[in-house]
Amino acid sequence: MTKKVFFLALILCQCLWGQAQNQKDSLTIRRFFDETLTVSESHNNLRELCKNIGARLSGSPEAEKAVKWAYAKLKSYGLDTVYLQEVKVPRWERGQVETFSVNGKSLRACSLGGSVGTDGVLEGEIIEVRDFEELEKLGKSKIKGKIVFINAPLDPKLIDTFHAYSACGSYRYRGASNASEYGAKAVVIRSLASEHDDFPHTGSMGYAKGAVKIPAMAISTNDADYLEKQLRTGTPQKAKMAMDCQTLPDVTSYNVIAELKGKRNPERILLVGGHLDSWDKGEGAHDDGAGVVHSMEAIRLFKRFGIRPNNTLRCILFMNEENGNRGGETYAKQSTQKGEKHLAALESDRGGLVPRGFSVDAPQSRFAFLQQQKIEDLLKPYNLHVMRKGYGGVDINPLKKYGEQTLIGFLPDPQRYFQYHHSDNDVFENVDRRELELGSASIASLLYLIDKYEFGVVN
Amino acid sequence: MTKKVFFLALILCQCLWGQAQNQKDSLTIRRFFDETLTVSESHNNLRELCKNIGARLSGSPEAEKAVKWAYAKLKSYGLDTVYLQEVKVPRWERGQVETFSVNGKSLRACSLGGSVGTDGVLEGEIIEVRDFEELEKLGKSKIKGKIVFINAPLDPKLIDTFHAYSACGSYRYRGASNASEYGAKAVVIRSLASEHDDFPHTGSMGYAKGAVKIPAMAISTNDADYLEKQLRTGTPQKAKMAMDCQTLPDVTSYNVIAELKGKRNPERILLVGGHLDSWDKGEGAHDDGAGVVHSMEAIRLFKRFGIRPNNTLRCILFMNEENGNRGGETYAKQSTQKGEKHLAALESDRGGLVPRGFSVDAPQSRFAFLQQQKIEDLLKPYNLHVMRKGYGGVDINPLKKYGEQTLIGFLPDPQRYFQYHHSDNDVFENVDRRELELGSASIASLLYLIDKYEFGVVN
């Protein structure tokens, strides 16, 4: 054989090998989707989590039930190991009383998570602001002794509803502290929701260091519209507010962790996760029951098809994303102390809606790997068309400060998410089976490709 | 000025002109989306159509109400002209009786559109087939005198649910004729639905020439599962079936048409449409209330922003897509007789779900226009990522036989459509406002680009 023929033969071999790999990849991905769409394990798991346990705020008995449920379910999959990681979590309780009325008319309201109670009935005149600038402009003379109504609607023009939500997030989180600076006695915010409806949406708030702790509530968007209209008439609007929520001592809880050990680099971790805790409204179906069952299903799919990963595939169901992120912080710290390295960490915490793609927080070379044509071609048949730079997720984010570089967020379609988020509307019935199952297979597919090629050359 | 400098200046001018056009395009598209997402005209229109009128099968009083409603609404937009085009439509009525029971247990069933009634109670033993092959194999000896249960589930593995639906369509349409060839006395099909639930889904069926006309029903997928299980026990399953549906004489109805006259080529038509009729179950919200309000909103957006199209923009709300396509046929024929030419025809008849893109039935050169990078870049911010070859739509399809070449179908995400389609589940509440409004703006945007560039060079 001449040299020329030899090299031609070598190139041909490489070509065929490449094609075979590519075919193997597309077949594996196809198998993931076939399995989720026919077996519906994610949907069945979500039903159990939502209907047998329901809302599961950190530190609540339901959160502990969820830990036990997830542990047992992951155990039943025959993975290499399933264990709990202790996490001290804050415990805030909504209590029994939660009312808000304006000039005698009762509005649909809920306490914001972390708020102090009213200690009886709190009364005051309402003053409306659209943003913090207006609050500042009105100043102490106008705000003092009043209940500040922060009426900042999510911008409906933003195609990505997460951008609209982010833009208003500080009104919920810092509204009470900012208003108390000017002597407000309480705040009530317009719910951070995308639709005009009757659900008040909760979520976490905090008090700045040294700030006077005043109570904070959210009212439904319909009731915010109503209140806005009443205020525009010029008639003073007197509110009565009562809530007996409180913060109790920290509680011991757990991250639930399951693993398939890597065959080539067992010490290197490929993480997939969502958070097990939820707010105490609805059933935490989209937020983040979906991410929990996505992650469980992703690791189950590897096991189901006998795919031994090169790196250790670790599924983590984090505790306490909603009001403290203690699970994420604890994990990142302890993992680093053990000297672990992560190939990548992928989080699902944007609901169980139809998949669009992934958001990547990584160095350019790794982003380039994910953006290449071969990866695009493999994901396109499943309508996964987004591979963009962006945020990974709250639970995995603490890994960054310990030097981990590759965080990925699963991106379902964002249109419907903020009508459910943190409200009584976030229930199992509002998660579509096919949309949810497609998410699990999408996540498993990307994990498979990352594990196989490790951000190197795709054959 | 030297020649060289002159040409350089010319090139620069063209460049700047191109950039300005591109900026103008992106601003116009942005305006369309801003308007639909804030004003919610499509959603409000859909509410009126669904809640004030509801289901509107061709020839029914509700269909006539829908014609009047659409005419008045389009009139209120101040377009150049709004008129009705007469269409003779078939009239089938479900009647009052519609029952199906098996060994005494009542199942959720509905008559298929076009079926004859049972003329009293029809009784018979059920025999199950999975497909037409099995029917043929069983033959006359096994089929004669029986009620054939065609139990063909939609394939859950297909990512595009329309493929799964199409694969089973013939069981609904031709099931009765095929079974009667072997002496069956009636057929009952498993609903063409993507989920396991309790809704029977109707839809059109027909009788082959010379076929014995036997009654045809659909049962819900849950009841099909139940019946399948009962049959597998080996116990004979005796059914009782009663339905008094009937076909009445044809009725005069209308396509509703509105136009904005073209300023450069008024004689050339750019068509956008959906169908006004629906099945007589639910409210015809996704099928095709969504297409109706999409089309109305698309033409309203041009008017709203003072965009005088180059070609005549014609919005057509077709009558009788569901059981005859007389509206589409009548329009295509009469338009051709008048010597009209169409630049393109775009139909929305796949529901009010979140937009993915468009399906194009056109010559390669026109497809290439739609596929080019500049178009892709303009649509990408709105998550419109699909521009593929494929079917346009039932109403516009007759145009093809008269030589029209460019038919386009709007493609919303297909995952949830077939849980609503042709059933009591197809109601206003199951259409998401943002998903619907994004569809209207997506359609208007593509029409704008097609009208402006007429499949030529995009600046």
Description:
Chains A, B: Residues 255-437 form the Peptidase M28 domain. Chains A, B: It is found in: Endoplasmic reticulum; Golgi apparatus; Lysosome; Secreted. Chains A, B: Homodimer. The monomeric form is inactive while the homodimer is active. Chains A, B: This is Carboxypeptidase Q. The structure is a homodimer of 459-residue chains. Chain A has helices at 3-39, 41-53, 61-75, 132-143, 161-181, 221-232, 285-304, 326-337, 364-371, 373-379, 398-401, 433-453; strands at residues 81-93, 98-102, 105-106, 109-111, 122-129, 147-150, 186-190, 216-219, 238-243, 246-260, 265-275, 311-318, 341-347, 355-361, 386-389, 407-412. By secondary structure, chain A is α/β, with parallel strands linked by helices. The first copy, chain A, has an eight-stranded mixed beta sheet with strand order 1-10-12-11-13-16-14-15, with helices on both faces. In chain A, strands 3-2-9-5-6-7-8-4 form an eight-stranded mixed beta sheet, with helices on both faces. In chain A, strand 2 and strand 3 (105-106) form a beta hairpin. In chain A, helix 1 packs antiparallel against helix 12 (433-453). The A-B interface holds A 33-34, 37-38, 156-157, 159, 161, 194-195, 354, 356, 381-383, 385-386, 413, 415-416, 432-435, 438 and B 33-34, 37-38, 156-157, 159, 161, 194-195, 354, 356, 381-383, 385-386, 413, 415-416, 432-435, 438.
